[in-house]
Amino acid sequence: MQAAPNIFSHRKHWAKRFGTAPVLPMSRGEMEALGWDSCDIIIVTGDAYVDHPSFGMAVIGRLLEAQGFRVGIIAQPDWTSPADFMALGAPNLFFGVTAGNMDSMVNRYTSDRRIRSDDAYTPHGAAGKRPDRAVIVYCQRLREAFADIPIIIGGIEASLRRIAHYDYWSDKVRRSILPDSRADLLVFGNAERQIAEIAHRLARGEAIDTITDLRGTAFMRKATPEGWAEIDSTEVDTPGRIDPHRDPYAMEPDKPVQATGPDEQVVRFQRRIVKSDPATTVIRLPSFEQVSRDPVLYAHASRLLHIESNPGNARALTQRHGDRDVWLNPPPIPLTTPEMDGVFDLPYTRLPHPAYGGARIPAYEMIRFSVNIMRGCFGGCTFCSITEHEGRIIQSRSEGSILREIETIRDTTPGFTGVISDVGGPTANMYRIACKSPEIEAACRKPSCVYPDICSNLNTDHSPLIQLYRKARALPGIKKVLVASGLRYDLAVESPEYVKELVQHHVGGYLKIAPEHSETGPLSKMMKPGMGSYYRFKEMFEKYSKEAGKEQYLIPYFIAAHPGTTDEDMLQLALWLKKNGFRLDQVQNFLPSPMATATAMYHSGKNPLGKVTHRSEDVTVPRGGRQRRLHKAFLRYHDAGNWPLLREALKRMGRADLIGNGKHHLVPAWQPAGTGAAPEGVRRTGQGNTGKPMAKRTLHTGLTAKRDGAGKPVKSGGRRRG
């Protein structure tokens, strides 16, 4: 993979003479106190401003400050008029706009399209402090206030809506966010490398519309420039022979393929190698108009976007919107460890802006004692958009940088009691794990390094993470270091020493993991491992807990109504939960977040894990409200309010044998008063309980109902970057 200049190697802007601000200003008064007559860059964000490295506006703001620029923050402005957007005046270079750490639609609406009652990124958790489709609305207000100032959009909302995308809340394919926002430039992914380069080039006098060569950016243009080779995306894949058990993303040698008969059902496809310079090759995706009319073409475009996601070999993509193209340059080069250290070592106060007084910001409360040690994920789960945003290549901080941050928390963060609440990131245990060969890594187009099995080229050594854990918990004043990020348990079992270290020293009684389902049908559409890995990990977890003399429990996450899930699959999962003594308090229906592969399945009914045609594999999609409620009810089979719906479904499915009052039944035949209509012929009882108590080992688990803008489960507030 090609190298890139260090993001801290730029010559600093002249405004460096003003030094480091105690906190980035949110008012003219603060600017004047710093001696500023203007800002060079103003960041508009949908989140409250917290000067902490888990908040995107703080990371980008402090990075630009380190480059010598004066950066102001407009947080959660009143979007009903341009007034709040004019509070700091006009910036000298550009406005940066982000919806915040979550997509604004995911932030405001549940998977059932109901309005959430709170917003974890707002003082006091108050809802309604940001508009729907915040990036578009903020840009509209900025254009009204400052017609000629460049606008650059970024963060999770812009990143995941950079091409035509299915929007669950309007139930249609929407245009790229670029033409709708009328922004000049879009930066996708973690934007440090791009935003530093853009700021310096604008400061040198370059026009925003001439900056078209930066990786990790998207912009509008009339046509493909002269000198570029254009490939139609429908020519990229050619049919291959039947081979249903092979990974559909595997890239086979280019060789002739003979059909075996006219009725052959093609389920795997080869890669056609097009001989052209990747640096001047662009793949033309079907236009917005085409993908909005034809769900199959939409799924095809989604597949191509994911194939072209490796920074080592990705080519530019273009997609027509009306009379102009949305042009996407290849993803940015991942940050090196020294660059990651530099970003996390910036002078954050690690506190909310003083303007909020003592207001409680739930997302900050959740992460103030946690440490992010890496970014990226090579898991490739189809319902998650981390790869599209952060990339699949793991970018790790150095051990020294992480330990320094823990000491900073210990010494400066109010309320610290000696417990680090989390040492992790998008996943808990991918720290310093990478492909054994840089050449293979740069050439690979597989979306996952661990599905269907762990790649033989993946180095699964957990020893750097074990060493980090041990050094962290040995620091003076540190009583406990917990791991609360999602654990990739199929990877963890490759290192029994890691599992032992984790279980005996870094679990606070409960460890949350995400098998997501028990059945192979949905798991294959999620690209998640089978239950064999879960049982292996469970065995290790219980063994090492017992050795340490600790009573600890695994808490599993599951997704209901995911594409590829049938009613029978959910029934089998419910029976698995009952057999294993789990009662889930809060559960999550699948939420089709923008750009995720599973969202393409949901919209199209096709499987983009293989080449997509009108004759390719159909995917079962639980789409209607009643079916989605049923799938969720199976996860909460113990809730008496769900029993009428479950009884009806069990009878329809020919499984009335599961209705009754015995231990082998899923739901009782009786209905407690006030918990739902009793089925015909069944006498109501006055019992207020929900049936016989489960075994002593039953766990009442509180699974979070909220997922982040990339579709991953998060602790309330989460740690997704904006």
Strand order of the largest sheet: 3-1-4-5-8-9-15-14-13-10
Average residue-wise pLDDT: 89
Tell me the name of the CATH class of the domain at 369-638 and 694-701.
Alpha Beta
Overall, the morphology is globular
Query: How much helix is in the residues?
Result: 25-40%
Strand count: 27
SS content category: alpha/beta
**Main beta-sheet strand count, sense and barrel state:** 10 strands, mixed
Radius of gyration (Å): 26 Å
Distance between the termini: 26 Å
- Measured by DSSP, the beta-strand proportion falls in 5-15%
CATH superfamily of the domain at 369-638 and 694-701: tm_1862 like domain
Summed up, the helix count is: 23
CATH architecture call of the domain at 369-638 and 694-701: Alpha-Beta Horseshoe
The CATH topology of the domain at 369-638 and 694-701 is given as pyruvate-formate lyase- activating enzyme
* Low-pLDDT segments, ≥5 res: 238-274, 678-722
Describe the 3D structure.
- With 722 residues, the protein is an alpha/beta fold.
- The protein has a domain at 369-638 and 694-701: pyruvate-formate lyase- activating enzyme (Alpha-Beta Horseshoe).
- It contains 23 helices and 27 strands.
- A 10-stranded mixed beta sheet has the order 3-1-4-5-8-9-15-14-13-10, with helices on both faces.
- Mean pLDDT is 89; it is low at 238-274 and 678-722.
